[in-house]
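Side project, low priority. Logging it here so it doesn't get lost.
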Amino acid sequence: MPKSASALFAVVALLLFVPGCEQSTQSAPGAAVLPTVKMKIGPRTYELEMARTSEQQALGLMRRDSMPEDHGMIFIFEEERMQGFWMKDTRIPLDILFVDAKGKVVSVSGMKPYDLNTTSSEVPAQYAIELNAGQAKAAGIRKGDVLEIPKAAQYMPDTPTTAPTTAPAK
């Protein structure tokens, strides 16, 4: 191979290798990286990805093989209303906390991978927080507890959040 061709091959090989070295909690190719916020849930602090748009909410935590123990996702809706989530294409078991506009936990449920049954908020909620399975119990969170929603994760009227669920219920 000519010297210039060898150099070109080396550069191309390096460019193909370097992106594969990035760490990510997402295993889906081309998955968007969302802004995060730190939130105290019980005595623990979690780093939560913020899903504001209908597209972000529809994708949620789908197609991920794992998630660090202290990570999760907060779904931010325009108003309190009945919420329903399912686990289509979601590979990891999750806990879901439904929270009203004042930060009160209105329900806590566990969700199994790939389960197409809808998990409902039971009463209107403005936020849903997904954590790894077992984290709600580990943080001591129960229905009726009050969480402080960080300012960065509160609903902002100029930011669209139009999806009522992470995926359409059956």
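Brief comment: Confidence is low (pLDDT under 50) at residues 1-31, 161-170.
Revisit when time allows.
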